[in-house]
Amino acid sequence: NPAMKGRDFLSLHDFSRDEIFYFIDLARELKALQNARIPHPYLAGKTLGMIFTKSSTRTRVSFEVGMYQLGGNALFLSSADIQLGRGEPIKDTARVLSRYVDGIMIRTFAHSDVTELAQYADIPVINGLTDLLHPCQVLADLMTVVEYKGKTDGLKMTFIGDGNNMAHELMFGGAKAGMNVVICTPEAYRPDPEVVRLATEDAKAHGGSITLMSDPVAAAKDVDVLYTDVWASMGQEGEAQKRAQAFQGFLIDGTIMKAAHPKAIVLHCLPAHRGEEITDEVIEGPQSAVFDEAENRLHAQKAIMASVM
Ligand code: CP
Ligand code: NVA
């Protein structure tokens, strides 16, 4: 798809509905090829540089394995080991890496660092999570919804928890996918108002909606997709206790599941804290799709890389 080549992947907000479904369709094709062990070396001879200033299991392994399955190579660049961690400017790192590799994936704190990297790099930059957004995750999430429900349009998707990077990207992705997205948080942990404003515009244009709530049982009523994430994200470890207090009643348990549609699926980007935001019973239960969701990171990101690189 020539319209995709060379593009950065910083948020689903930057892509049209058709482009998002193009990625999902391609991801499903790549999944079928991989499951049949049919080689698909679309990125032979290409290299992805992967910069991490935060921990990761899924993102790191799925990007590296995905690149390998596409016939290319991936470099793990911990910020503790490259000069970026000693203060080399992002704009210099961007231009130097552009001379060596064919794409950069970055996971870091400030979203503005990723947009700056993308501005100075001549090659595609993929957002592997910032404090603001997590687009690779939500592409995999929408793919999982399509696999389980056959569609996204008109489905109710409720996120219960912190108004964080996951809540933001679920609004952007869910809006373009025509979903009715409910973000249920304590009052003091609402999502970013500018993200809410932009996602609400997108939702209106695509037949969906964005609603903010603070009552988890009401928010879960008749829901098709129930989503949660940790209460203290990476970088917020020092607030964990305070947050555990503030989020009392916001865990996904049997009571919440009773309010949901009987065929609702439960998603969690992982890692999960059992007994905090979700009970062991729910995450291990029959409605949990979390490990299919985690697997789909691999296929979704292969679709992104094969398209933009
Ligand atoms: N969901 C997710 O991004 O997981 P990792 O932090 O393990 O990459
Ligand atoms: N909100 C979490 C997501 C982890 C994949 C974090 O940023 O730590």
TrEMBL record:
Its EC number is 2.1.3.3. Residues 153-307 form the Aspartate/ornithine carbamoyltransferase Asp/Orn-binding domain. L-ornithine binds at residues 165, 229, 233-234. Its main location: cytoplasm. It is found in: Cytoplasm. Residues 7-147 form the Aspartate/ornithine carbamoyltransferase carbamoyl-P binding domain. One of its GO terms (cellular component) is cytoplasm. GO terms for biological process: citrulline biosynthetic process; L-arginine biosynthetic process via ornithine. PANTHER family: ORNITHINE CARBAMOYLTRANSFERASE, MITOCHONDRIAL, ORNITHINE TRANSCARBAMYLASE, MITOCHONDRIAL. This is Ornithine carbamoyltransferase.
